[in-house]
């Protein structure tokens, strides 16, 4: 059974940083493509970052236009954990953030990120 547990959310001022974690069990993250999604109040869930599974060389990473250059998705295979480093945070980044394994349709419970002064 696949389990994903997000952590690292919180309240941060505009311009600040947070690092989200997604600890996985029941599968090896290195074998999976993974995504971070977010959902703000009253809005649809949107994909913000994607990392491909490990093949040859560095994994492929893709970002939504709204976060490119500020967010970085990464993976620690030894810890079986996915990360999202978020820098230069803006109020519009406020949302519940979820990690996802598309091939398994597996989701975590989400972690709240609030950017406010």
Runs in which pLDDT lies below 50 for 5 or more consecutive residues are: none
Category from helices, strands and their pairing: mainly beta
Radius of gyration: 13 Å
Number of E-state strands: 11
What overall geometry do the principal axes of the alpha carbons give? Answer: globular
Count of helical regions: 0
- The average pLDDT value, as a whole number, equals 95
Helix content: under 10%
Strand content: over 45%
Oligomerization category of the chains in this entry: single chain
**SSE series:** EEEEEEEEEEE
Main β-sheet description:
7 strands, mixed
Terminal Cα separation, in Å?
Answer: 40 Å
Distinctive features:
117 residues; mainly beta; seven-stranded mixed β-sheet; 0% helix
Tell me what the structure shows.
With 117 residues, the protein is an all-beta fold. The protein is 0% helix and 49% strand. The protein has strands spanning 3-7, 10-12, 18-25, 34-39, 46-51, 61-63, 71-76, 81-86, 95-101, 106-107, 111-115. The strands form 2 sheets. Strands 2, 4, 5, 6, 9, 10 and 11 form a 7-stranded mixed sheet that branches. A hairpin with a 4-residue loop joins β7 (71-76) and β8. The model has no long low-confidence stretch (mean pLDDT 95).
């Amino acid at each position: 059974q696949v389990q994903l547990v997000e952590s690292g959310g919180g309240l941060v001022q505009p311009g600040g940083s947070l690092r989200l974690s997604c600890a996985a069990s029941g599968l090896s993250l290195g074998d999976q493509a993974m995504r971070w999604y977010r959902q703000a109040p009253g809005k649809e869930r949107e994909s913000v970052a994607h990392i491909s599974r490990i093949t040859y060389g560095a994994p492929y990473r893709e970002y939504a236009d709204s976060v490119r250059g500020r967010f970085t998705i990464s993976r620690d295979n030894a810890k079986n954990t996915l990360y999202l480093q978020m820098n230069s945070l803006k109020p519009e980044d406020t949302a519940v953030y979820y990690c996802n394994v598309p091939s398994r349709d597996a989701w975590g419970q989400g972690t709240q990120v609030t950017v406010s002064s």
